[in-house]
Structure formats: structure tokens, C-alpha cells
Design a protein that fits this description.
Udp-n-acetylmuramoylalanyl-d-glutamate--2,6- Diaminopimelate Ligase, Chain: A, domain 1; UDP-N-acetylmuramoyl-L-alanine:D-glutamate ligase
Length: 305
């Protein structure tokens, strides 16, 4: 019978206090990070985020009762005992961002960021599966891709991870840039650009420019992975180069694509795909029918190279 792997210690009192510029209370170790008591696990560090409709401070005591290792709360908060384990901070949202940045700073993982009008979550999951065969991978759960979800996902990244995949979403211009600058990816994948969330944009070009904000956090010489079949390819490629990308890897059916599908054949198990990756022919199967799924896998292969 195999031994169960002990959970990693993600944060202790000193490290969390340094990351959040807060005051540590007690001597504790956390094996996870949570902002929601409904999904909190024993050993998690609970960060009491104040949202539009609710305030996590209202649930801080419940978090401790559920087994939280500690709580990150405002310095003046009196809803838990003064000696309750955790960190007292000026602003809990900024504290969560501080944990995310500190986790990124201490990590040696290859960081991949994924965005796009459609296919973000599926591509993130597929990329994590491939990278997980090469080492220890960390990926954002579900669609934790906004101004709370991304720092939370970063804060949960184990020091031991060799690669990590983060999804980045947006509804308005200017939302992806700070996420990418926090994650500082080595690889940025844009699945496709289409006229969705159009109530906040006047054109597909504006959507492309908003998606291209993902390159603003790209590490120097990093890689952009782009859909060669998309009409916005040239615009996105130029944005990536301007932001300092060292390479642009293209995917699609286009004859100039670096990762190119040469033939697809539906069968009882999904779709059989023949593709050329940098001139090397390969064959694989996608477990679901549909051209868009095939194209998504090409982008994933380009990002995993």
C-alpha cells in the first residue's frame, strides 16, 4: 500500500506577514489558501476579502472553526479573538495580491498564461495535463481568472511546482494587464479572438488589443502562442513583439502555421488528428468532435513545446 503524500506547507506566519506587509499573530503553517468558507479545507489560510455584496470578515470566525490555519483580516477587525492565528493587514485584497506576487517571486516554475474569447478553460486543463507528465504542475482551478481568482491561484502555487498554468479572463479593457504583470508568464497563449463581451467593445480589434495585454507581463524573451487562422493574428503578433516576446509560435490550418493540422478524421472515439509541429509529423486523437477542439489542442501543443 503506497504512502499518502503529505500536503505541502504553502505559507507560515513569517512568510505570509512579509508577503502582505502585515503583522503575524501566532506561529502557524498553512497547506492551502481560501477566500470562501464553503470550500475551505482544514489547514487553509483564509483571506477575508471584502466584495461588493459580501465581506469575508463576516466569515472569519467560521473559517477558524472549520479548521483554518489562520485568517488574514484587517488590523482593526474585532470579530475574531486578538490572538487568533493569522495576519493583521491594512487591506485584505492587497494582501491576497501580495501573497500571489510572493508566490511568483519564489517560484522556479515555467509559467503559462491562457486567454481568449473561447476555449480558455479547456486549453488550460489540457496544457496542465501535458505539463503534468513532465513534472509537478500547478493550475488554476475552474475559471479562477479575475482580479481575485488569479492572485488566489498564484498564492496556492507550491514552491516545488515545475510548471504552472493560469487562466486570465476579462470583460473590459485594462483587466488582463495587471493579471499578467502579476503572473509574469514565460508563455502566453491566446486561443482565439471573437466578438464576444461586445457590449464593452466597439470592434473585434478592440477585443484583440485587450487580449494582447497578456503580453505586457511576459518575461523578457518569452513566447506568444497565437491562432494563425484568426484575422487578428498579425495585430496580436505585432503586439507580442512590441512587448518583448522572443518568439511567436503560430497554430492552425494556415500553411504558414508552426503547429499545423494536416488532416482530421472523425471516428467513434472523437477526432483523429494528423498535425505537423515544426516540421515533425504526429498523430493523436481528440476525445470530442468539433474543429474548434482540434484547434485548441494545436494551441496547447504550441504552448507545451
Amino acid at each position: 500500500m503506497g504512502m499518502t503524500k503529505a500536503p505541502y506547507v504553502l505559507w507560515n506566519a513569517a512568510a505570509a506577514a512579509a508577503a502582505t506587509e502585515g503583522e503575524p499573530v501566532g506561529d502557524w503553517q498553512a497547506t492551502g489558501v481560501s477566500i470562501d468558507t464553503r470550500s475551505l479545507k482544514p489547514g487553509d489560510l483564509f483571506v477575508a476579502i471584502k466584495g461588493v455584496a459580501s465581506d469575508g470578515h463576516d466569515h472569519a470566525q467560521a473559517a477558524l472553526e472549520k479548521g483554518a490555519a489562520g485568517v488574514v483580516v484587517r488590523r482593526d477587525f474585532s470579530g475574531v479573538a486578538k490572538d487568533a492565528p493569522g495576519v493583521r493587514v491594512d487591506d485584505t485584497t492587497q494582501a491576497l495580491e501580495g501573497l500571489g506576487r510572493a508566490a511568483r517571486d519564489r517560484s522556479r516554475a515555467k509559467i503559462c498564461a491562457v486567454t481568449g474569447s473561447v476555449g480558455k478553460t479547456g486549453s488550460k486543463e489540457a496544457l496542465a495535463m501535458i505539463l503534468g507528465r513532465q513534472g509537478e504542475v500547478h493550475a488554476s482551478q475552474g475559471n479562477l481568472n479575475n482580479h481575485w481568482g488569479l492572485p488566489l491561484s498564484l498564492a496556492r502555487m507550491p514552491i516545488e511546482a515545475t510548471s504552472a498554468v493560469f487562466e486570465m479572463g476579462m470583460n473590459h479593457p485594462g483587466e488582463i494587464r495587471p493579471l499578467s504583470q502579476m503572473a509574469r508568464p514565460h508563455v502566453a497563449l491566446i486561443t482565439t479572438v471573437e466578438l464576444v463581451h461586445s457590449e464593452y467593445f466597439r470592434s473585434v480589434e478592440e477585443i484583440a488589443d485587450a487580449k494582447a495585454e497578456i503580453f505586457d507581463g511576459l518575461v523578457a524573451g518569452g513566447t506568444a502562442v497565437l491562432n494563425r487562422d484568426n484575422p487578428m493574428f498579425d495585430r496580436l503578433s505585432a503586439a507580442a513583439r512590441t512587448a518583448g516576446a522572443g518568439a511567436v509560435v503560430s497554430f492552425g490550418q494556415h500553411e504558414a502555421a508552426d503547429v499545423r493540422v494536416t488532416e482530421t478524421r472523425p471516428d467513434a472515439l472523437g477526432t483523429c488528428v494528423q498535425a505537423s509541429i515544426a516540421g515533425v509529423d504526429m498523430q493523436y486523437r481528440v476525445g470530442v468532435p468539433g474543429r474548434h477542439w482540434v484547434l485548441n489542442t494545436l494551441g496547447v501543443l504550441g504552448a507545451a513545446k
